[in-house]
Structures are given as C-alpha cells and as structure tokens.
Amino acid sequence: MSWPAEALPRLHERHFRSLRASLTRHSRLLRLLLYAYVVLITCPIRYWPLQAGIDQSWRFALNYASSQGSAVASKIVFMMGPLFYLISPQNIGDNLAQGLLFQAGLWLVLATIFTDVFFWAGFPLRNLALFSFCLALATQLFWFNYVGTDDLMLTGALLLIVVFYLRGSLVRYLGALTLVGALPMFKLSAAMVGLSALAGFLVERAVDRRWKALTDAAYIVAVPAVVTTALCFCVMPSLQSVLYYLRGSVQVIGGYSSAASLPGPDIVFVSAFEALAVLAVFLGFQAASAPRLARFYVLLLALPVFFSFKHGFVRNDTHALLFFCFIALALALVSLTLKLDKTGASWVVPLALVFFMIWQDNVSFGSILGLHHPTGARAAWMLWGALRFDNLKHRLDDSITSFPERSRIEPELAKLIGDSSVASLSADFTNLAAARMRLELYPVVERCTAYTPYLDRLNAAWIREQGSKFLVFDGRAIDGRDPWAETPAMWLEIYRWYDARLLGPRNLLLERRAGPRFTRLETISRFRMESTGELRFPVSSDDVFWTVNCGYSTKGRLLKLLFRVPEVLMSVHQLDGSTRSARVIPEVLVSPVLGNYLPGDLSQFYAVFDPGGQRRYSVDHVLFNTSGNSAYSSSCDVEMLRVIQ
Questions:
Q1: b/e burial code for range 216-242 (CB count within 10 A of at least 16 → b)
Q2: Which of 38, 177, 236, 501 is deepest in the core (most CB within 10 A)?
C-alpha cells in the first residue's frame, strides 16, 4: 500500500505530536515521582523509646526537663534548645503528641518548599534528578544522633534562598529568614550555620546590588531576631532565663573543640579533600556558564562548609559523616542550576558517581544498612508508626518494661533510694528513669558536657544549694577522661556534702550529709610548673587539693577556633607503684582537684567518700603530657591547697 505524497507530512507531524505528548506525560510522571521521593526522604517524623546509652540519656533528660514546665526548663543548660523535644520527642507528658503535631506541620512546610522547587521554579527535569540523587546522599545528616531535624529546617532555608536568588519573591525570602530565626530554639549551632549562610548571601547582594542591598540587610537583621525573640519569650519565663540559655549554649559550643577533640585515622582527611574537590569542580563548571551564580554559591556555602568540617572532624569518629553529608547537600543545591546538556552531563554525572563512592566509604561504610535513610525506608517506617498513635504510645511505654536488665539500677540501691530525690553523676542515667525514680536534673544535664569552668561551677552551685538526697555514679567517664578531674568544681562540692552509703556491683550510692564535711580550702603554696611537668604532693593524712592554670599559645587559640587542640594526658602515680593514665581538660583544672587521694575506680571513690573507712591507696604525684606542646603555654600557675574543717 502506498500513501499519497501530500499525506506524508501530515503523518509525520501527527507522529511527532504524539511522541512529544508521550514524552511530556512521562517527564511529568518522573518529576512527580522524584518529588514524592524527596518529600519522603525528608520526612521529619521522629520519636524514640527509653533506651540505655549516653546519647539516649541526654535525649531523655531534655524531654524530661521540658515536661516539667518552664520553671524547671529555664534552669537547664540545653545542649540543643528548649524546643528540642518537638523534634525528638519521647512519651513523657504531652511531648509525643506535641512533637508529632509540630513535625507534621514542618513536613507540610518542607513539602511546599519542594513543590516550589519541582513545579513552580522551572528547573529542568535532569537537574531535579541530579538534585534528588545528591540530596539522598545527605539524608544521614537528618538522622544523626537522634537529631538532625534542625538540619532539615536549615535545608529548607537554603533552598528558599537559592530559589529567591534565581526567581525572586519576598515570600520565599521571608520564609528562609523565619526558618533560620526558629533554629536557635532547636539547636544553636545550626542557627550559627544558618546565619553564616545568610551573611554570605548578604555579601553577594552587596557586591551585586551595592546600596540596593540595604533592604535585604534590613530583612536579615530584623526577621530572624523577631522570630527568635518571640519564641524565646513564649518558651522562657523571663529575660534572665533567655540570657542564661544563650550563655550556657555559647559555653557548650565554645568548649567543644578542646573537650571533645578526638583524633582518628588520617585517611579520612584524604576523603574529605576529595569531596571538597568534587564540590569545587561542580562550582567551576557552574562558573564556566554563569560566573555570578557560582560566586553566589561560594559565598552562600563557604562558612557552612567550614562549620560542617569542624563539627565533623573535631571528633574524628562517626561525626565525620556529617561533613560528607553536608557536601552532598551543597552538591544538591548547585545541581539545580548546572548546565546539563550532553557535554555538561558527560562531566557532571561521572563526578556525582565519584562522590557516591566517597560517600559509600565514609557514610554507609559499604554496608547495605547504610541505605535505609537514602531509600526512605527509615522515614516510611517511622511515619507508619506515627499514624497508629495509640499503638505507638503503648510501644514506647513497653520500652521501660523491656529495659535491659544489665543496665538497670541494682535492687539494693533502688530499695535504699525509694521515693527520695536522686540525681546521676554517670553519663548513662536512663536506668533511674526505667526504675521510675524521682529523678532530679542539675543544670548541665550530662556531667561530661560541663567542660568549661562556667558550666562546671553551675553544677557545683546546684550540688551546694539544692543537691538531691542521693547521687548515683558508675565510676566511668567518656573519652578516657579522669572521672574526678573531668568536673572538679562539681566533685569538690559533692565531696563537701555527700558520704558513701552503698557500693553496688555497678554503681556507688552517695547520700547527702546533714552538714558540710569541711568549710573551706586554704592555700599551702603557689609556684610555676612546666606545662608537661610533674606535680608532686606532700605526704599527708589530710586531703591535699591542687589547681593548674595553663593558657593556650597563639597557635593553640587558632587550633581551638579553627579545628581541634591536642589532648592532654595525666599519669597518676600511686605509692604502691601502680600508674594509670587519663585525659584531662586543661580549662577546668582552675578548680581544685583532689590530689593525694585522687580516685580512679569505684572502690577508690567509695573509700574517699566513706566517712569511717580507711584509704588503702595514696597518690604521690601526677605527670602531665601532650603530643602538642606548642599549643599550650610553656609554663603553668600551680596552687596547692588543704582542707580546713
């Protein structure tokens, strides 16, 4: 059969029209599927049972403090923020219901932002596909250590800034500023990252628009400040409590580099350099087609990338994945505007696959279990659980019944405590909650986080003025620290006000005295000592205390600001010839530390606090050492003190 010549053009036109319509339908479907996938993997629904562990303990404590009302919560130094319980709720009081309602509202906000990105802003489908791939590699950032929802809020703010820069609309700009303004109530460090991104954006506007950028600057100054202030006074009862929270949070952030520094394998830094190189090539490729846009990304992301590097590598353990995930987020943002024609795709797609291999080695560690966040499986499971709210509450309550037996408080200690008030000196103290005891929280709820003199003295004041009837301690400290020298001001007050009551298999029970053990400390001598020197104690049956004041060198101050400082080790030598080594935090040693009877294990702690017992050990000297002598002053001021009854 032959077609008339005049019919062939109409057939070809009809065929191409049908093919174009089919491709349009398929592209719309793919765009919709990518949108649904991104909305799923950024689902902020979170809730947690009561579990044993250090991180689980502070999560419980912040939930517990929030449930006690603003009067109690305002006396707590929140390591995250006073509204932390909304992003990581437990079934304590109304926290679970309030948290899930907040998370549902936040999810709606995020879904709206992604609707803007996928359907209203006009980004090509291939760019959205690359964006989705890179964002999936950032998802561990949204789940790390039971938090991460604050990083979801930050992600939403960054996306709004990018789209505002490209497409305009005051609504987008105000939305981004509102999200950044809310961040201090959830995590102050996340707010610092958000503000640093806004600062970079403002520099870009000043370069690009000069005096016209004053309007943008006014919004950046006013909107986050108004939002933060409004939330502060809604949550906290007074200006004093607001200032207390801010000062405490600044102390926690400022002391992190010296207290939490943890060296790790150097090979991770090679991977970090490779990840940065991929981001740099992405930005270079962007600069080839749109130099202004590349400059915008550099200024927007420079400080946030630095903060993520410091946060990830101060503790060079699993925290390192935070850096790689933030680089993935940065790649996702840049992916929205790359020129992905045939030539561009041939450069960018292989680079994205290179980053995926880096991500596998440093985030998922080559395990299939590392894919439950990028695939959305974890988010879907949490969402399904939240939809069955009554069943969820029962399941979370059952976690107390199924609390591990080996982690529970000893029955003999529980019997003595009864319904009296009790606080824990241990890093892991959910055992007291599992026993349904009358738990009291001191200001820095995790003693190991009171790593500056200010924070240590806050806890010391609580012990002195309103300490609970009983204290429980398991004898351990994190990061190989010396248990007593970790928070010496607090231990001084504990020693003044508490006696040993019972030594159990896992815990020591201390009971508050009717009066103080001693009234004050008197100076015996003052002298200077080399920063890596030896500190000898006089032979005495009385307690001898010491303080050491060692400052940082210029190099040390820079290291603390930009990265991490070398750890300081203290070797404790006993008269019987035995030696133990532990890490110390130099800043807190300005408070008196017990010297000649410095305890190192539970039995020695019991001997120190036992009012009628004999101490069968004695410490004659301690030796300080560090691998980074140049980070500290060459000499330190030392003071020896004794107890005055």
A1: beebbeebbeebbeebbeebbeeeebb
A2: 177
pLDDT band per the 50, 70, 90 thresholds, residue 9: low
> Encoding tokens for residue 10?
């109409």
User: 635: burial class by Cβ within 10 Å (0-12, 13-18, 19+)?
Assistant: middle
DSSP collapsed to 3 states, 309-357: HHHHHHECCHHHHHHHHHHHHHHHHHHCCCCCCHHHHHHHHHHHHHHHH
Q: At what angle do helices 321-335 and 342-359 cross, to 10 degrees?
A: 170
pLDDT band at 135 (very low <50, low <70, confident <90, very high): very high
- φ, ψ of residue 297 in degrees (nearest 5): -65, -40
The Cα–Cα gap between 247 and 454 comes to 10
Q: How many CB atoms lie within 10 A of CB 382?
A: 19
403 neighbors 409 (Cβ within 8 angstroms): no
Close Cβ partners of 449 (under 8 Å, ≥ 6 residues apart)? 58, 79, 252, 455
Among 336, 344, 358, smallest CA distance to 285 is for 344
Beta-bridge partner residues of 552: 632
Chain mean position to CA 592: 30
Q: What is the pLDDT of residue 10?
A: 59
* Alpha helices (H) along 447-487: 453-466, 483-486
Instruction: Give the pLDDT score at 582.
Output: 95
Measured between alpha carbons, how far is 241 from 245 in angstroms, rounded to an integer? 6
The pLDDT of residue 71 is 61
User: Per this entry, what is the length of the chain?
Assistant: 645
Residue 7 has pLDDT above 60, yes or no: no
The whole-number average pLDDT for the span 631-635 is 86
Write the single-letter amino acid at 524.
Answer: I
Q: At 451, give phi and psi (nearest 5°).
A: -100, 15
**Single-letter residue type at 239:** L
Provide the pairing of β-strand 498-503 with 438-439: unpaired
Better-predicted residue by pLDDT, 258 or 104: 104
Torsion 482-254-313-532 (CA) sign = negative
Domain ranges for the chain: 261-366, 405-644
Residue 638 CA to residue 534 CA, distance in Å, equals: 11
Cα distance between residue 269 and residue 253, in whole Å: 23
Per-position DSSP letters for 516-568, written without gaps between them: -S-SEEEEEEEEEEETT-EEE----SS-EEEEEE--B-HHHHHHHHHS----E
Per-residue pLDDT tens digits for 343-376: 888 889 999 999 999 999 999 766 665 788 999 9
Where does the pLDDT of residue 8 fall: very low under 50, low under 70, confident under 90, or very high at 90 and above?
A: very low
What token pair was written down for 50? 């009561």
Interval 416-473: pLDDT, tens: 999 999 999 999 999 999 999 999 999 999 999 999 999 999 999 999 999 999 999 9
